[in-house]
Amino acid sequence: MSAPDGPELVGQDGAGVPDALQRLWTPHRMAYIKGQDKPEDGAAEGCPFCRIPGLDDETGLILARGETVYALLNLYPYNPGHLMVVPYRHVADYTGLTAEETRELAELTQHAMRVVRAVSAAHGFNIGMNQGVIAGAGIAAHLHQHVVPRWGGDANFMPVIGHTKVLPQLLGETRKLLADAW
Questions:
Q1: What values do phi and psi take at 115, rounded to 5?
Q2: Which domain holds residue 142?
C-alpha cells in the first residue's frame, strides 16, 4: 500500500514499516475519542461520575472523598496530576450546586492545589469547568471542575505537531503519590 507520492507505511502483514519517524502510541485515548462510558441522554444512569464513587479508591482513581464532593484523577489527563473535583449529586450546572457543595468544591480544589504542589512542584494551574457541550464539556450532564498542574515549558511540540501528550507517569502511580500526600 504505497501512497502515490510517499513511502510505504504499512507492510503486507499490517505492521508498520521502519522509517525515519518515531511514534508514541496512545491507544487508550481511542476510548475517549469514541465517547466510551459517556451517558448519551444526560441521565444519572450510565454516568461515570455517578458510578465511580461506588468503586474502591484505587480502581476509581479517587484521591479524596468529602461529604458532598470527591476528587479523582482524570482518566485522560492533559498533564500528570490532572484531577477533577466532582459533586456526588448528578447536577449539570454550577448554578445548581447547593451552598454546601459550592463551599466543599472550593475547599477541595484548594487542598488539591496544595497537594499537587507538594508532590510535584507545579509552577501553576489551570482551574475550571466547561459548562455545556458547546463549551467543551465531555460529560456535560455532571458538573466537574478540572485542576490541571502546569510547569514552565510543559507545552512543547508534541501536542501541536503530533497531537500527543507525553505523560511520564502511569495513572496508578500518580494516584498513589497524591492520595498518600492528601
A1: -65, -50
A2: 38-181
22 three-state secondary structure: coil
Which stretch of DSSP H or E encloses residue 65?
Answer: strand 62-65
Q: Is 144 one of the catalytic residues?
A: yes
d(CA 64, CA 72) in angstroms, rounded, equals: 7
- How close are the terminal C-alpha atoms of the chain, in Å? 53
46 phi/psi in degrees, rounded to 5: 90, -5
pLDDT one-digit tens code per residue, 35-83: 555 556 666 678 999 999 999 999 999 999 999 999 999 988 888 899 9
**Active-site pick, 82, 142, 144, 146:** 144
Residue of 67 and 34 predicted with greater confidence? 67
Asked whether residue 106 is assigned to any structural domain, the reply reads yes
97-110 pLDDT, tens per residue?
999 999 999 999 99
**How far apart, in whole angstroms, are the C-alpha atoms of residue 81 and residue 34?**
24
CATH of the domain at 121: 3.30.428.10
